[in-house]
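Lay summary

Proteins are chains of building blocks that fold into shapes. Our project writes down both the chain and a compact code for its shape. Here are two examples, one after the other.
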Amino acid sequence: MNHKKKKIAFVIGALTPGGAERVISTLSNALVEDFDVAIITFKKSTPFYRLDDRIKVISCFDKIDKPTSVFGSIKLNYNILKKVTAIVKNEKIDLLIGFITSANIIATLAARRNGIPSLISERNDPLKKDIPRFWVMLRKLVYPKADNLIVQTEKVKTIYTNMLKHKNITVLPNPISSDLSKLRKNNVTREKIILTVGRLNNDKRHDKLIRAVNSLKLESWKVIIIGKGPNKKKLTNLIESLNLSHQIEILSNIKNIHDYYMKASLFVFTSKAEGFPNALLEAMHFGLPCISTDCNYGPSDLITDGKDGFLVPVNDQEALIEKIDKLIKDDALKALFSKNAAETSLNYTSDKVTEKWKNVINQHL
């Protein structure tokens, strides 16, 4: 019985480094066994994460200039929509999956125009204030037309259920990249390194960690911050002003992130807002003892405070300092968190999460 595989396509802005992009790459690599998989991007980019050779990446435009006005933005998005609609038709796609607000809206409309089902995946805090009004309005209008809205945590589901009156909302957490899982080693030599990973932006609050380390005067410890983003200069200046340049290092565009997960002794996550904390999950997967702020959304889905990590209130600098100090001094506790965190993370392996996605996709095909 050789019936042809159904063809599904993800829709996203570009395949740059980032959480959503990693999830799409991980899911595509797993789903390609059961479906014909394509990824439609708005603009051309070299995929940052590994993709199976069978996955077709199609871009709408080679490059996109940032629109300077609302009118420019509407025109650009209308052109992207036309292009995506045409690609779906030419490629004979059976189902579309959008990732992130603008791609969700375009995926839903392009699917409607082609008479095929669409799944959309929201990765952000639904109450975030900095989404342009235009998109918030469009989201209210368009999201209910998608066949299924996929969110990452139960809390977000509750909010969207009230906000969007969407009938079909499914919670599917992010999978851990199977490429990452394969790189784990059992007996690693951990160094006196505190690690954090995440975009250098206002949400991630890296300054909190920098200031905590300054308060603790951890002479023999190093801190590594991995990420890139708009606040790099600001953070570098802060590190210099505290005379911590010899101790705190910011690294960007790191491909071998697993080496750092295995080398560090502590992972500290100071976000004030998250969609789903991929980096925290990855750190736990590598058996790193973790301390995270209890921000919306995700850390409390992953960490049970005191069992497989510590959760601290978002703006409680004293609590953050206290927990870092405690973990640094307590080797038995570090070992316990390490073991339990790695176990907790197994609920999020690529196989487990892909199976759930497969079920949702098949429901709509």
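And here is the second example, written the same way.
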Amino acid sequence: MYEIIDIDQWPRKDLFRFFTSYDNPTWDLMSDVRITRFYQVTKEFNYSFFLSFLYAGSLACNQIDELRDRIDAEGNVRRYKVVHPGSTILYDNETYGYGYFDFHPEFETFYKQASEEFAKQKESQGVDPREDDLARIYFSPIPWVSFTGFRHPFRKSGNTSIPMIVFGKHYEREGERYLPVGLTLHHGLADGFHAGKFFSVLQHLLDQPEDYLSSNK
């Protein structure tokens, strides 16, 4: 479900029209987030770190209006009520495809369904792009390297309004554990202010995992 934003009455109308004229209107921001407690709790309850972070990242995005805005094929700006994670999934043959998960506010419901979908996609394999599904956030885990920069490929005719989140190999520093996270946004829809809100909300969720993670699987 979504509503169509009236662009003429939208406070972002000038920025939106300015940046949609760019060949590539996306921009990227990288930051390390502290995951010390989040990592401990996922290990304690034997949760998949990948699926748990998918939930936390999606929950953060759903709390920020601008990260639920998308541009449709007619140029309308849609504001979705809920957006759902999609992610790259590595296969045993060292290729990958895409898995799609339904976001649920209750972690247990999300985790159960996401675990089933993950196993199904690992078995069926295939790429399965769903470019018409705008109510998504694209995640890309890269757990083999802790990076400080990243750039996504874009098709000339592709939709660049869907946020992309990449996360890498976590590491320890001065007694804390950190995870590199990259966020890519359409500049016509969101600015540094909104990216800052995302990282602030995400950090709070990672610092307080007991608020949503539990031992009830």
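What can we say about the second shape? The chain has a mean pLDDT of 94.
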